[in-house]
């Protein structure tokens, strides 16, 4: 657990440092050349800094152990802050979309510079490294906060690639493509923000464990021939794992100790074999 939170902390710090560097060079070159695509890209980097800050704060809160007021811990902070990240992305996307459409409508042009090309190449390189690092962590620890950052880094690689194409096309005096790219970047950011919002919303609204995880539980139960029926299967997210509960029916002639020992052993087996489950609660009924 401690390793998971420390890794998330480092990912957020690397993200803040990397995006701060990219923001400064993108904003400077974008303003100097009046490139709407590069300006949009720089604002996207500012949003990425905010995302990394939210990852840092959310991870810090989520790492707190359970207490008397929060019996299931603080794990849902990951999803609250993921939702804040998504909302900021959507707001930034709307602002960039308006600016890019206005630029296209008024046929605003910009001055080509090889510095634009250089900044694009540096951005793609830095973002690719950040994506590989955060994607590996998100796969290892099943962390939505890091996954949101990884997706953002990956999207930025594609977004900046289009900015690079727009810069090169300006050499042929095709300047309208720059505003089109600005519109495309805005839509891409908005789409990613909505997707992260929906994922966070599902967890905060106690979305049930995925069908694959449920089937793993049922397969373990089926191996116990003394259990004759299962009902009332429920699950709720607790941080990045789930608490599950269900009712089992056993032979009514068994003693109270014997029937509850079946439940106790089953709880231990499920908690040990299924990583997605942090706590199993079983109610026993006679049949």
Explained architecture:
With 287 residues, this protein is mainly α. It is built from eight helices and three strands. The chain has two domains: 2-204, Cation efflux protein transmembrane domain (Alpha-lytic protease prodomain-like); 211-286, Alpha-Beta Plaits. Strands 1-2-3 form a three-stranded mixed β-sheet, with helices on one face. Strand 1 and strand 2 form a beta hairpin. Helix 4 (114-141) runs antiparallel to helix 5 (144-169).
Which blocks of ≥5 consecutive residues have pLDDT under 50? none
- Tally of distinct domains: 2
| CATH top level assignment of the largest domain | Mainly Alpha
Instruction: Describe the global form.
Output: elongated
Average of per-residue pLDDT values? 83
* Largest sheet features: 3 strands, mixed
Order of helices and strands: HHHHHHHEEHE
Q: Helical amount among residues, as a percent range?
A: over 70%
Tell me the number of strands.
Answer: 3
What is the CATH superfamily of the largest domain?
Cation efflux protein transmembrane domain
Q: Gyration radius, to the nearest Å?
A: 25 Å
Q: Looking at CATH, which topology of the largest domain would you report?
A: Alpha-lytic protease prodomain-like
Report the end-to-end length measured between terminal Cα atoms: 40 Å
* DSSP summary: helix tally: 8
Name of the CATH architecture of the largest domain: Up-down Bundle
Structural class: mainly alpha
Write out the strand line-up for the largest beta sheet, numbering strands in chain order: 1-2-3
What share of the residues does DSSP label as strand, in percent? 5-15%
Tell me the quaternary state. single chain
